[in-house]
Amino acid sequence: MNPVDRAISDIVLIVDDVPENLSLLHDALDEAGYTVLVATNGESALQRARQSLPDVILLDALMPGIDGFEVARRLKADFATQQIPIVFMTGLTETEHVVAAFAAGGADYVTKPIRPAEVLARIAAHMQNARQMKQARSALDAFGQATVAVRAADSRIVWQTPLARDLLNAYFANPETVAPEELLAWIAAANAARRDQREPAPLLTAQGNKRLLASFHDQTGDDEWLVVLREENDASAVESLIAAFRLTQREAEVLYWVVQGKTSKDIGDILGSSPRTVNKHLEHIYEKLGVETRTAAANLALGKMRGG
């Protein structure tokens, strides 16, 4: 990619205690159009990563003080930096050191002596993935999606949109990085239902007339799940039916209770009307929805209430 075409957000943090390595890598990355930050020890690397949130970190494995493996572990334990790809630089090619790099959270590694062309190729690949992930999250944020990524193995929230954070706090007083037990239990039950080719139950929890619903969006990795949260309550459901089908307030209320499986008599009792009046409302509802049966009306309404 031509340097003038590269996004200004493409930031690489280089962490190395050897000035010659820093100089070589800085010049190569700068010439390729990246914004380059440097750190010469583990402490400054952690500080710079939290402050600047680079797109990729190029990390020396062996440094005085906090070594690269420990830096990586701390970055992966920090909610703000855990998604940044880490490419290790090491002169150690023994299997145990390569395994240690990946175990600490590394996405890739290059061996010393450094070959700039190889480093640039590795960085470009991880930069593309990082950019796509950032764009996807920005899109979810922009459209107000309540989406959370959960790693079930250790109960960690890998990331979440602002709306998902608000909902989890409202229903579970939830900390930033740990998934609530109710969400973990739902993921386990919903995953089992999918394996059995059953539709997972959407209800996560309820508070009064408000309900928090969940649905799977995708599996993003081994035991890592992307879950979409949605809050539903009686009033908002009725409003959505009014907007979707141009119903009156009372027609929308009747249709809402039809979706809940209530009979005309039940609906009359709830709304303070006679069953005959409820059936009259249903005739108008069928006409506006273009359907002929109670079941068809309920299915169409349910789709709209779920955002379909």
TrEMBL record:
Q: Which InterPro entries match?
A: CheY-like_superfamily, Sig_transdc_resp-reg_C-effctor, Sig_transdc_resp-reg_receiver, Tscrpt_reg_LuxR_C, WalR-like, WH-like_DNA-bd_sf
Tell me which PROSITE patterns the record gives: HTH_LUXR_2, RESPONSE_REGULATORY
Keyword Chaperone annotated:
no
This protein's UniProt keywords: DNA-binding, Phosphoprotein, Transcription, Transcription regulation, Two-component regulatory system
Entry annotated with the keyword Phosphoprotein: yes
Looking up Pfam families in the UniProt record yields: GerE, Response_reg
Tell me which residues bear 4-aspartylphosphate: D60
What SUPFAM superfamilies would the database entry show? C-terminal effector domain of the bipartite response regulators, CheY-like
CDD domains per the UniProt record, alphabetical: LuxR_C_like, REC_PA4781-like
Which stretches make up the HTH luxR-type domain?
A: 240-305
- Residues of the Response regulatory domain: 11-127
PANTHER family, sorted: REGULATOR OF RPOS, TWO-COMPONENT RESPONSE REGULATOR ORR33
Official protein name in the record = Response regulator transcription factor
This protein's species is Azonexus hydrophilus
Organism placement in taxonomy: Bacteria, Pseudomonadati, Pseudomonadota, Betaproteobacteria, Rhodocyclales
